[in-house]
Amino acid sequence: MGSIVQGRSSPLPSRIHKHTHNHIVFPLVRLFFSYEQKVLAMDRFHGEALAALEHPTEGRDETIGEWLAKRGYHESIVGGWIVPFCAAVWSSPTAAAGAMNARALFGFL
């Protein structure tokens, strides 16, 4: 079922190599997986933030930026979703959102 591409056998069906739409399809596939990763990270954030509310000292003396960094959140989630979310909650500039108290934000979830 595979085809020969540049002298090597390919496990992909030969019709894949013939289509000129690959330049559209493959970026869409990457975009989908990028979106899926963001949704999973959002779900992770909500779960960890709600769990933190069950512990009275969790996030009390930390900024949201510190709390997120300690847990290894990717910059695309921090800068693309959480920081704008924090800025919207407190009607503040996005530059100041990372300095907001983590526990105070958790109360809005």
Task: Based on the model shown, name its key terms.
2 strands; 63% helix; mainly alpha; two-stranded antiparallel ribbon; 109 residues
Q: What is the structure about, briefly put?
A:
It is built from six helices and two strands.
What does this entry look like structurally?
This protein is mainly alpha-helical. The chain has one domain. It is built from 6 helices and 2 strands. The chain has helices at 14-18, 22-53, 64-70, 75-90, 94-97, 102-106, and strands spanning 2-5, 8-13. The chain has a two-stranded antiparallel ribbon. The longest helix has 32 residues, at 22-53. The protein starts with a strand and ends with a helix. 14% of the residues are buried. Residues 1-5 have low confidence and may be disordered.
What secondary-structure arrangement, pairings included, does this model have?
Layout: E1 2-5, E2 8-13, H1 14-18, H2 22-53, H3 64-70, H4 75-90, H5 94-97, H6 102-106
Antiparallel strand pairs: 1-2
